[in-house]
């Protein structure tokens, strides 16, 4: 009875879990009342059995967590052995904390590309710029960089010459250059018309035909005169003829 009372005092301790203490019922409670003592541990065998099952499950959980930890953080599990006789909650908490810490570090470093990602990037570059081998990646990169620099400088100069805003897209630059070409072509046509003294395209054609008929005989005559007078300059023809006269 004294041993039972001592157990009862342990069960009533503030540190004891509420699960292990219940008020006695039935004949055992009457017996305790008759003896002048009250204790509540008649249900403890079932509770102890449950705890034993939990302790066994704790070992299985520890084994599973350790396998997971070996995959994620193998450098944290060197001092943990499966052959330990007793597994503490602190051991499990240590493994979980190590895994959580590794996950947090991976999330912080998630911006760093992995090897498969880098391989995919290189393969994509090879397809875009028709590079057959890895040795040709760097030369093609340099070539693309050089061409890009040249195009950037050309676009910057065109923006300045055309007095366009630096944010104007290439399509606007192309349209502006096209309009300038149209204006230049129109001016050239007007200048040709003024030079030939006509605004009629048919008159221009007639003048060109007349020139084509007149110029070859005239050129042949001049060549004959140069040979006959033994001179090479057109300006010497008249002085030579006057001298002969």
UniProtKB/TrEMBL annotation:
GO MF annotations in UniProt: gamma-tubulin binding
Subcellular compartments: Cytoplasm, Cytoskeleton, Microtubule organizing center, Centrosome
Annotated GO CC locations: centrosome
UniProt keyword Coiled coil present: yes
Source organism superkingdom: Eukaryota
Full protein name: Centrosomal protein of 70 kDa
Job of this protein: Plays a role in the organization of both preexisting and nascent microtubules in interphase cells. During mitosis, required for the organization and orientation of the mitotic spindle.
Subunit structure: Directly interacts with tubulin-gamma; this interaction determines centrosomal localization.
Signal peptide: none
GO biological process, one term: cilium assembly
Keywords, ordered alphabetically: Coiled coil, Cytoplasm, Cytoskeleton, TPR repeat
PANTHER family: CENTROSOMAL PROTEIN OF 70 KDA (PTHR14594)
């Amino acid at each position: 009875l004294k041993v039972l009372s001592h157990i009862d005092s342990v069960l009533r301790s503030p540190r004891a879990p509420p699960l292990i203490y219940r008020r006695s019922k039935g004949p055992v409670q009457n017996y305790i009342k008759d003896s002048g003592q009250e204790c509540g541990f008649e249900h403890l065998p079932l509770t102890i059995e449950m705890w034993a099952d939990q302790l066994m499950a704790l070992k299985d959980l520890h084994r599973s967590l350790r396998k997971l930890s070996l995959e994620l953080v193998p450098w944290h599990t060197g001092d943990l052995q499966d052959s330990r006789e007793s597994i503490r909650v602190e051991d499990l908490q240590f493994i979980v904390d190590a895994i959580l810490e590794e996950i947090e570090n991976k999330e912080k470093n998630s911006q760093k590309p992995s090897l498969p990602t880098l391989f995919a990037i290189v393969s994509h570059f090879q397809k875009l710029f028709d590079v057959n081998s890895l040795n040709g990646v760097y030369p093609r990169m340099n070539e693309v960089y050089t061409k890009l620099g040249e195009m950037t400088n050309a676009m910057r100069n065109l923006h300045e010459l055309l007095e366009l805003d630096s944010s104007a897209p290439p399509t606007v630059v192309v349209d502006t250059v096209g309009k300038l070409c149209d204006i230049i072509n129109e001016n050239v046509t007007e200048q040709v018309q003024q030079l030939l003294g006509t605004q009629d395209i048919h008159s221009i054609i007639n003048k060109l035909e007349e020139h084509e008929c007149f110029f070859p005989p005239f050129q042949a005559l001049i060549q004959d005169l140069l040979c006959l007078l033994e001179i090479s300059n057109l300006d010497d023809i008249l002085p030579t003829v006057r001298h002969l006269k």
